[in-house]
Design goal:
Elements: E1 39-47, E2 51-60, E3 65-66, E4 69-73, E5 79-84, E6 87-91, E7 94-98, E8 105-106, E9 111-119, E10 131-132, E11 135-136, E12 164-166, E13 180-183, E14 192-196, E15 206-211, E16 219-223, E17 233-242, E18 251-257, E19 265-271, E20 274-279, E21 285-286, H1 291-295, E22 306-313, E23 318-323, E24 326-327, E25 358-363, E26 369-379
Antiparallel strand pairs: 1-2, 2-9, 3-8, 4-7, 4-10, 5-9, 6-7, 10-11, 12-26, 13-16, 14-15, 15-26, 16-25, 17-22, 17-26, 18-19, 18-25, 19-20, 20-21, 22-23, 23-24
Length: 385
């Protein structure tokens, strides 16, 4: 299976992931003459005390390419831990980024963009020896790294230019207000939402959801932020904590209204004890709910804060998911059907276009749970945990 995070992240939106480098997809490197007149690379980095993300744009200044490979060497002690929109591998200080099937065509003057994230300890200088299909790129295309903050930014304050960045510290009462509003999209029962001052990931407040079983127990808190222009890859980061293991029945705790589904939602939740994506319009799931598919997902641990991150490509029916330091292989769709994972999901070819974010609980049978959400962010660039 090809890795989207070896593509964010399709999405893809965290700061420190496992230091294990992603496996590269097989790709035959084109002859150097394919880029014989040069290229330009814009390397924009955002870093903190022990990690970084980098957005890389490579522009082909030579003849058209049908597949590309960008290489560079780190002169610091950076280690790539994840990537999106390319398959990125690292051996020692040498890094290779290979195009994916859907973005390999690079005409003259055309550009491809991908991102990566990683860790560093003592030095994080921007690389300067980029080469496209073996031919060096111009040295003036890179941008220097930003000046690191003196300390690691606190959770909730490290959202960059995100369209939504909330740690709920602006909530003044027990009822969600201001930029967050209670909603029951289809029907309302005994499920409830509140601002909690006893449990928080950072600061002194979080959003608490008392989820109740039964279809008509929808209880969500919706952000008022308009997310319809976020992208082209939408990155979502949140910290979530809950009390009860995901049940065998289908449940949802994140809902993203999707204009490509006439307002029906992309939903993140669980089934058969593991995390899953569900599409409301056709009830497709990612992964497929076969034993092999479920085994490729992961449970959502209880009793502790977990960093959950998504990357949703709004140009193609692809997405990616991370739980803590791990890219979840069963929650990955990259346009290439994979048995037990995304064949059902890719049956719909219309790209998603999420417009809003709702956090809460929706059960389609059995399953009570109490959940807390904190340090929530949505933006066009990767957002670290």
């Amino acid at each position: 299976m090809r890795a989207l995070l070896a593509r964010l992240p399709r999405r893809p939106w965290t700061a420190v992931l496992t230091a294990a480098v992603l496996s590269a997809s097989a790709l035959t490197v084109l002859p150097a003459s394919g880029a014989e007149t040069g290229c330009r690379v814009d390397y924009t980095v955002n870093k903190w005390a022990d990690g970084y993300t980098a957005q890389v744009k490579v522009t082909n200044l030579g003849p058209a390419l049908d597949g590309w490979r960008l290489t560079w060497t780190y002169t610091g002690d950076q280690r790539v831990t994840s990537a999106w929109n390319a398959t990125v591998t690292q051996t020692g200080a040498s890094v290779v980024a290979d195009s994916l099937g859907w973005n390999g065509a690079l005409p003259t003057g055309g550009a491809a963009e991908f991102g990566l994230q990683g860790t560093w300890r003592s030095a994080d200088p921007a690389p300067s020896d980029f080469a496209l299909n073996g031919v060096p790129c111009g040295g003036d295309g890179t941008t220097p790294p930003t000046t690191p903050p003196p300390t690691t930014p606190p959770p909730g304050a490290d959202c960059g230019d995100a369209a939504l960045c909330s740690d709920f510290e602006d909530q003044t009462g027990s009822t969600p207000s201001g930029d967050w509003r209670f909603t029951a999209p289809d029907c309302q029962g005994t499920g409830a939402a509140a601002v909690d001052t006893a449990v928080a990931h950072s600061g002194s407040r979080s959003l608490r959801i008392d989820g109740r079983a039964g279809y008509c127990n929808h209880a969500f808190v919706a952000s008022t932020a308009d997310l319809s222009s976020v992208g082209p890859v939408m990155h979502v980061r949140m910290w979530v904590r809950h009390t009860t293991a995901l049940p065998s029945a289908h449940v949802t705790f994140v809902s993203l209204p999707d204009s490509s589904q006439s307002g029906r939602s992309l939903r993140v939740g669980g089934q058969n004890g593991a995390l899953q994506w569900n599409r409301e319009s056709d009830d497709a799931t990612l992964p497929e709910q076969s034993p092999a598919g479920v085994a490729l997902s992961r449970p959502l641990p209880t009793g502790s804060w977990q960093c959950l991150r998504f990357a949703i490509d709004t140009r193609a029916p692809g997405l990616d998911t991370w739980l803590g330091d791990e890219q979840v292989p069963g929650l990955h769709a990259d346009g290439v059907p994979t048995q037990d994972v995304d064949r059902q999901w890719l049956a719909r070819t219309t790209p998603p276009r999420p417009t809003a974010l709702r956090l809460g609980w929706e059960s389609y049978g059995t399953g009570d749970d109490t959940l807390w959400f904190d340090d929530v962010a949505v933006g066009s660039d990767p957002i670290g945990c």
